[in-house]
Specification:
alpha+beta; eight-stranded mixed sheet; 15 helices; 33% helix; globular; Probable malate:quinone oxidoreductase
Length: 481
């Protein structure tokens, strides 16, 4: 007889950890299990070296605001990130998360552009955002002396010539999502969650009793097994599409994903780390996918500072770093092949960009870094492999964002897509709860609002409320507002 769980979480990343934590607060009596195919949690997209750790609040990311006069998307992303911050602050107060400095640190968010066209764009963007309550305190400058104060590495030995400009928001953050994930899972395991590591979910099948049969195989010994679940959440990164397709739900039809990998240049040279205490984003190259916007990021992981530059796009047919070379082929279905072929034909700029990236030598990558750090010594920088991102393809289009796919009856849900991803884990999981547990959700709202006080409101419409919420959360997380 298979063991039966109220909830089964597939994937040991920040999404499963966040949903499990919320459910523990809302329904502590529920029986929950989590399956992770690797030997530890937080080893794929949530691993700190597989992402740039930017607490995505649209403070510096230009791809969230292609029209400098339209802040709607940027404001929406910022609203979402505020909920994640509030949840973390509540969990710190409860002792569920450790000291804030173990996972989040104040790191100004900057944007740096060059050339008359981009300078004009950035100035227009600044003029729009400076009047938005959630972007209060944003600064703009074209003065090399001011920008040097903000980020010395950017300006040292920079030659005069092409115009440049920068914006800066002091209240930005660097987040170690691996630490968040591990700490949340530690709490869940202590509270009774059955965490099964080295266990790969192979198939989901709906039984006549209405329960999901979760079929798995232990990676050590290859022994198979199965459990039953009333609700299944698939937070398996790029592999989510494979697991959801195995379930047979009609909602996954038409979806495909396109894998894009990345590399970063990283330095731990103390002299360089001391000169760069910000996350600096710029404009993406023509044809580049949204998650490939170049940026120079200060990082704090396990108490040690470093600086990363990239990403440089790579290509692998795998949906995860530890995935299968057949991933990109085995996702093909009659329902999605037409859409995928259309994406291939209509995204020739992306193909050209990827080919160019794949042909780049280390020297060319150092040249790319030199656009941000003029006084660069390649010997100070090592090349590291980042995580795989699976960008959603649907309706013949390559989509940007993170999307919840749920069955009509709410018995299963999964997550597809990449950015803003982990930064908005809390609001994304609220979306899952609302879609999949509509009968319980109203009763859960009071507890959710205790954890995230502004849940259900729009901060950007109320300057005083926005300032107060940001200040309160910043104080609890040890950040300067």
């Amino acid at each position: 007889m298979s063991e039966t769980y109220d909830v089964v979480l597939i994937g040991g990343g920040v999404m499963s950890a966040t949903l499990g934590t919320l459910l523990k607060e809302l329904q502590p009596d529920w029986k929950v299990a989590a399956f992770e195919r690797l030997g530890e949690v937080a080893q794929e997209s949530s691993n700190p070296w597989n992402n740039a750790g930017t607490g995505h609040a649209a403070l510096c990311e230009l791809n969230y605001m292609p029209d400098p006069a339209d802040p709607a998307k940027a404001v929406s992303i910022n609203e979402q990130f505020q909920l994640s911050r509030q949840l973390w602050a509540s969990l710190v107060e409860r002792g569920i998360l450790d000291a804030p400095s173990t996972f989040i640190n104040a790191t100004p968010h900057m944007t740096f552009v060059q050339g008359e066209k981009d300078v004009a764009y950035l100035k227009a963007r600044y003029e729009t955002l400076k009047d938005q309550p959630l972007f209060a305190g944003i600064e703009y400058s074209e003065d090399s002396r001011v920008i040097h104060q903000w980020a010395p590495l950017l300006m040292e030995k920079r030659k005069k010539g092409e115009p440049f400009a920068a914006t800066r928001v002091p209240s930005g953050t660097d987040v170690d999502f691996g630490a968040v994930t591990r700490q949340l899972f530690d709490h869940l395991v202590e509270g009774g969650l059955n965490l099964r590591l080295d266990t790969e979910v192979r198939k989901l099948k709906r039984g006549k009793d209405g329960l999901w049969e979760v079929r798995y195989r232990n990676r050590v010994g290859k022994t198979p097994g199965a459990v039953k679940a009333r609700f299944v959440f698939v937070g398996a990164g790029g592999w989510a599409i494979k697991v959801l397709q195995s379930s047979g739900i009609k909602e996954i039809q038409g979806y495909g994903v396109f894998p894009i990998g990345g590399q970063f240049l990283r330095t731990t040279n103390p002299a360089l780390v001391a000169k760069h205490k910000a996350k600096v984003y710029s404009q993406a190259a023509v044809g580049a996918p949204p998650m490939s916007v170049p940026h120079l990021d200060a990082r704090m992981v396990d108490g040690e500072g470093s600086v990363m530059f990239g990403p440089f796009a790579t290509f692998s047919p795998k949906f995860l770093k530890t995935g299968s070379l057949l991933d990109i082929v085995t996702q093909v279905r009659l329902s999605n092949i037409g859409s995928m072929l259309k994406v291939a034909v209509t995204n020739l700029d992306l193909v050209k960009y990827l080919v160019g990236e794949l042909l780049k030598s280390r020297a060319k990558k150092i040249d790319g870094l030199r656009q941000f750090v003029p006084d660069v010594d390649g010997a100070d920088w090592e090349l590291i492999q980042a995580g795989q991102r699976a960008q959603v393809m649907k309706g013949g289009k390559l989509q940007f964002g993170t999307e919840v796919v749920a069955s009509a009856d709410g018995s299963i849900a999964g997550l597809l897509g990449a950015s803003p991803g982990a930064s908005t884990a809390a609001p994304i999981m609220l979306d899952v709860l609302q879609k999949c547990f509509p009968q319980q959700f109203d009763a859960w709202k009071p507890r959710l609002q205790e954890l995230m006080p502004t849940f259900g409101t729009k901060l950007n419409g109320d300057p005083q409320a926005a300032a107060a919420a940001i200040a309160t959360t910043s104080q609890k997380l040890g950040l300067s507002a």
